[in-house]
Amino acid sequence: MLSERRLEVLRAIVQDYVGTEEPVGSKALTERHRLGVSPATVRNDMAVLEDEGYIAQPHTSAGRIPTDKGYRLFVDKLAGVKPMTAPERRAIHHFLDGAVDLDDVVGRTVRLLAQLTRQVAVVQYPSLTRSTVRHVELLSLAPARVMLVLITDTGRVEQRMVDCPAPFGEASLADLRARLNSRITGRRFADVPQLVQDLPDAFEAEDRGTVTTVLSTLLETLVEETEERLMIGGTANLTRFGHDFPLTIRPVLEALEEQVVLLKLLGEVNDSGMAVRIGHENAHEGLNSTSVVSVGYGSGGEAVAKLGVVGPTRMDYPGTMGAVRAVARYVGQILAES
Amino acid sequence: MLSERRLEVLRAIVQDYVGTEEPVGSKALTERHRLGVSPATVRNDMAVLEDEGYIAQPHTSAGRIPTDKGYRLFVDKLAGVKPMTAPERRAIHHFLDGAVDLDDVVGRTVRLLAQLTRQVAVVQYPSLTRSTVRHVELLSLAPARVMLVLITDTGRVEQRMVDCPAPFGEASLADLRARLNSRITGRRFADVPQLVQDLPDAFEAEDRGTVTTVLSTLLETLVEETEERLMIGGTANLTRFGHDFPLTIRPVLEALEEQVVLLKLLGEVNDSGMAVRIGHENAHEGLNSTSVVSVGYGSGGEAVAKLGVVGPTRMDYPGTMGAVRAVARYVGQILAES
DNA sequence: GCTGGCACTCGTGCGCGCTGAGTGCCAGGC
DNA sequence: GCCTGGCACTCAGCGCGCACGAGTGCCAGC
């Protein structure tokens, strides 16, 4: 176990390095922080911290920089979440109010997060799996062609074309529409499959094939949409990443274009709190020199989706965590209201 | 007017520079192209081309690179559009087939374009202004709350919440829905305002306020959506931009995040053909060292939206133009089919 | 009007030595 | 036992000078 002072030294190193972006030496440390001991002592502490793997030297005769392990300790034990100031809070509210629809809410959230944290922001659209059905609409486009429109309680709309095996009368369509809505409106997606299971039985033999087709398209939509959409922004902030550009930035941009990677990234948040994944803790190797701060948000108490930011491991963790948490909370409120 | 051979020299310079990314000198030129004259002669030609502003020297004792004006001449007079090869064509078809909905089509198109051109791709969602109404749906969510869903012939779905001034019965709603659809289904957006103008007159006085509210929301949706959405991809390709990274890449990333800028960018295509805007021809100064190749695409003969790529001025124009054109054509086909 | 030759320019790469920040270690003091 | 001041050592970064060579402009001759 590290002594109190050594932890203090680590904290000072992290703070200075995050601020200056340059390796920090023992002398500079004692000058900028009231550690109450001399540089020589700090040097000894640093040697220990290095042995333990919390900090490293880029090369001999340079200062130390925190390792992933060092940041981890910093985040877990040494730093809290820095709450937003009142003006910041007001700015968040101001910025998010007045969004007209779901796309707009998500779009504004991305821009806001990117601006607040000066990093890359990622916001997942509210997930369908936990959503409920607000309405299902069926439209006849041609005798054997039906359009299925699904509307969720988070305001999301999905539509699918259905090619029917046989012509389907307007009356049958109205019948199916009514039966479907009475069964699943207000129910959770997860419950839908059971609820519609025996629906085809209520129809004439000639229509049964079509009903089955429509239903399976509906179920597909529910499943497919679990593979959720997201929006990213603030990629211009990547340019403030480090000195050794092309090599650092390229894999990050590539990773950010792959939805799957991003979803996994956010996916690893446990529902309750905030998650911070530092450097090599990220499975994707393009993101090995980045940290991800993410959190769930939702309209009720429950999280329906996640949002977060991606930045250099050398980031202001307390501030970033504060911003992410504040934004998530307010987005949740907005969704609950609408 | 420049002589035939001088144009040939310019073409050679552009081709070599695009290939090697390095200033090209007179000797190298004669070696790599069969110009039939000696380096000294080429030097004279180069001096003329430089006087005329088509090429420039980064510094004395370096080769020449094309200026924006030089690229412009190259694109207008010296280069055609390089058609896609049969395998490339097949790859395009293969990649775009099997898209399930509009989002998917647009998403695939962006990825495809980015991959083919190795540049940043921008695809605008099919515009509503030229679209026609496929169906309008009205759902009652609460006594005085209606959800309006608009479905277009390009498969786009927009929904809006409407708060009614007075409770609105299910019967009235059905009536409105029927009347609305019989009037505007299949009609162009532009014609809708006239077509619904006198609709409120057909209703009881107590419902008239609500009908008016619903209609104005509908018209708003049509107008608002003219400010269109778009999708971009392939930003990782920016890393192959040049040697002097941060300064070049940053403003580009920033510009790409501003929808307005991008829409303007694409907006300057004339409907018929392809547009190429080179370097300083782009109004936005962040894009002064990039070129934009864009073209309209649409489901019928008419263009309903635009797509294009953004890359360094030093790009393979014929190849890029070929790829952009081929993709636009096929996307048009896909939209027409669905 | 093209060509070969020639003098000139200047950016790039390399080797060199200096500087200074930062380290590790040690002996002495509280 | 822990902290401290002192000291020798290391090494990345910087500036300098130099040589190289790619590329040019100009000119006289064919």
Question: Strand order within the widest sheet of chain A?
Answer: 7-3-10-9-8
- Beta-strand content bin of chain A: 15-25%
Reading the helices and strands of chain A in chain order gives: HHHEEHHHEEEEHHHEHHEEEH
Biggest β-sheet of chain A, characterized?
A: 5 strands, antiparallel
What is the CA-CA span between the terminal residues of chain A? 50 Å
Low-confidence stretches of chain A at least 5 residues in length (pLDDT < 50)?
none
Largest interface between protein chains, with number of residues from each side? A-B, 34 and 34 residues
Q: Classify the helix fraction of chain A into a percent range.
A: 40-55%
Q: Structural class per helix/strand content of chain A?
A: alpha+beta
> What is the quaternary state of this protein?
homodimer
Shape of chain A: elongated
Q: Output mean pLDDT of chain A.
A: 86
SS field, number of helical segments of chain A: 12
What's the β-strand tally of chain A? 10
Which radius of gyration of chain A do the C-alpha atoms yield? 26 Å
Structure description:
Two copies of one chain form a homodimer. Chain A has twelve helices and ten strands. Chain A has 338 residues and is α+β, with helices and mostly antiparallel strands. A five-stranded antiparallel β-sheet of chain A has the order 7-3-10-9-8, with helices on both faces. A three-stranded antiparallel β-sheet of chain A has the order 4-5-6. In chain A, a hairpin with a 2-residue loop joins strand 4 (133-142) and strand 5 (145-152). The first copy, chain A, binds a DNA duplex (30 and 30 nucleotides) through helix 2 and helix 3.
